[in-house]
Amino acid sequence: MGDHYPRGDARSRANQFKGFTSCVLRSEFPHLKSRMPMLWSSWFFVASAGAVSADTVEKYSNTQWERPWTKKQQKEGADRAPGV
C-alpha cells in the first residue's frame, strides 16, 4: 500500500529521537544492552499547541500536574474561621 506518512512527520521524528537516544544511552551505559533489549516502546504521543506563545506552553508544562480542586480546597480552608 505504500507509506501513508509524509517524510519528516511526527512518527518519523519520534523514531529518530528514540533511535539516537537509545544509541547514546547504550554506549554510555553498556549494561542496558543485556538488561533492556528494547529501551523504548513503539508508542509515542504528539500534540499541537496551536497558536500560543512559548511562555504559555511553558506555564502549562510546569503546572500540568497541579490539581485545580486542591487549590480550591486550600483556598476554602483559608477562608474559614479557625475551629469551624
UniProtKB/TrEMBL annotation:
Gene Ontology biological process terms from the UniProt entry: DNA transposition
Region (Disordered) location: 63-84
Top-level division of the source organism's lineage: Bacteria
Annotated protein name in UniProt: Putative transposase
Domain Transposase IS200-like: 9-62
Record's signal peptide: none
Pfam families per record: Y1_Tnp
Organism taxonomic ancestry: Bacteria, Bacillati, Actinomycetota, Actinomycetes, Kitasatosporales
Coiled-coil stretches noted in the UniProt entry, renumbered to this chain: none
Organism this protein belongs to: Streptomyces harbinensis
Gene Ontology molecular function, alphabetical: DNA binding; transposase activity
Compositional bias annotation for Basic and acidic residues: 73-84
InterPro entries linked: Transposase_17, Transposase_17_sf
